[in-house]
Amino acid sequence: MSASDTIFAPATGAGRAGIAVIRISGAKARSALAAMTGRHTWVPRHATCVRLRTSEGVPLDHALGFWFPAPSSFTGEDVGELHVHGGRAVSAAVLAALDGIDGLRPAEAGEFSRRAFQNGKFDLTQAEALADLVAAETAAQHRQALRQLDGELGRLYDGWRRQAIAAMARLEAEIDFSDEDLPAALQIAVQGEVAALRLEIERHLADGQRGQRIRDGFAVVLIGPPNAGKSSLLNGLAGREAAIVDAAPGTTRDVVEVTMDIAGLAVVIADTAGLRQGKGRVEQEGVRRARQRAAAADLRVVVLDGAVWPEVDDITLSMLDDDALIVINKCDLGGLGDELAVGDRPAMPVSALLGNGLGELIGEIGKRLTERFGDDAAPAPTRARHRRSLEACAAALARAERPQASELMAEELRAAAAALGRIVGRVDVEDVLDVVFREFCIGK
Ligand code: GDP
Q: Is the pLDDT of residue 430 over 90?
């Protein structure tokens, strides 16, 4: 596979649709357009009606052709686009005809975007945003991806990188041009700047992983005693049969998940094994996983069994932390009373069976997550990759703040700048590229 090959691929999804867009990028894009359409003159970026034929002259489709000469194209190379009718047979025939043209080959997953990055069309965070935008299913994911595509995150990190480089340059200028020791005042001033930058980065990191949660989903777990109706509640919330419901206690031994859109946020709700001193090894393992899951969750919904209310077992009581949302299920059985609370914590009545109170419960989950994570005024790191590099940067800055020879301080600042450069793709990042572009599909 060579980066100088001319590549082609459908840019639209497979299946029946009004149209399918086929992209061609590289030095032979123009001759490929000519071979497919018989047309040799193109007005850049104008829609042109064309008839597509194979090299033997077999008609393939009536299509729209576009010509985007380099560098004003998605990849920065010469690009041709064919908007054909969206049937499988049409696309397959056009792709086969393109494959028959000398010097053309099908694109690898993410190859168009990778070329665009390499030709300076956008930075790495914007490439990631493109993948996120295509994958976005909720309003918050959509908003976040679009802001990142606008370059908000890249500009922030690049600004910090410049600050680190500027501080380094000031030290190096002194190192290079003075015979004597560096003026202490300069070192102290640079240390102050470095500390301010490190604090800013640490504040940015201390966001409860909002950006990653918006992208990957907020974790909500249902916990409680066996038979309280957790599986039924999960099914009720999801509006479909996703969890196994059984009248025998202890049936949900593993964790079952459902992803929902709540208040524009992707929320992954997990049903867990009932909390009790399990008899068998498998059940004990389920309880261990339930606790682990609950500890890592963004929100815990403790489900109590209305059939035995107000009795609450000790294990469940131990899970009632300040942030937990308490629901009492099976309110259809009656006799729960009016003011529902466990100690001084209010509880919501629901019936998984009849669907009573589920709208209120979904509303409350959305409200709590929005209160805690909804402030999206400031951009947030959206991937573990960003976080790791930011942490490496902050650590290098912290080392730079120590009293030491100016050369060593400058070296730490160089490491801090390089860590930020890896996020946006400003330093040599061949290894990072494979990670970033692997998540793209063919045609992106
Ligand atoms: P889990 O062990 O907590 O997951 O509980 P399940 O969802 O398997 O439910 C246990 C039993 O309670 C089943 O027989 C359900 O039909 C019953 N159940 C669940 N929710 C309700 C409810 O809202 N009202 C009534 N009356 N029964 C329920």
A: no
